[in-house]
Amino acid sequence: VICIAGEEAPDLIKSSPVSGQQVRLLKVFAILLPVWGILALFFIALAARGIDVMAGIGLVILSTICTTLIRLWNARPISLSGMMMRRRENAFNDTILGILESLLFFVWVILGTQTNSGNWLVVGLILVFLAAVMAIAYWRSRALGSSLGF
Q: What is the pTM of this model?
């Protein structure tokens, strides 16, 4: 699976023996599994101390999936030759995508604190806001014609 700064080379994906959607799904898992594996150690240590970690696990899973999907939906397809010749500093010059990812980070932190405090009205409003951010990211990818996602 090819993963370079959230971008893909369409000519390599087309030459794959499996469908493009299956490659993208495998790419999402290749990105998420190491993160989940590292964080699982943290949650195991907390659970061993008798701390309830189920809400934290749910938030981690949802937040990492949301961030990965936003990056995947707004990836910029480039050819293999373009990928080899490309300069690194150009890989992260999408300002709107950077804002969406940064916004998600802070919203997930706030959601975690509100979930922990039991403020369910605020949690519901934040979930609606998260759904709106995800919809904007998906709409943006379709409008730009750059969506590599599902």
A: 0.73
Whether the Cβ atoms of residue 89 and residue 21 lie closer than 8 Å to each other: no
3-state secondary structure the chain: CCCECCECCHHHHHCCCCCHHHHHHHHHHHHHHHHHHHHHHHHHHHHHCCCCCHHHHHHHHHHHHHHHHHHHHCCCCCCHHHHHHCCHHHHHCCHHHHHHHHHHHHHHHHHHHHHHHCCHHHHHHHHHHHHHHHHHHHHHHHHHCCCCCC
Tokens representing 103?
């916004």
User: With the C-alpha atoms ordered 95, 111, 71, 73, is the resulting torsion angle positive or negative?
Assistant: negative
CB atoms within 10 A of CB 93: 9
pLDDT in tens, 15-65: 777 777 787 788 788 889 999 999 999 999 999 999 999 989 999 999 999
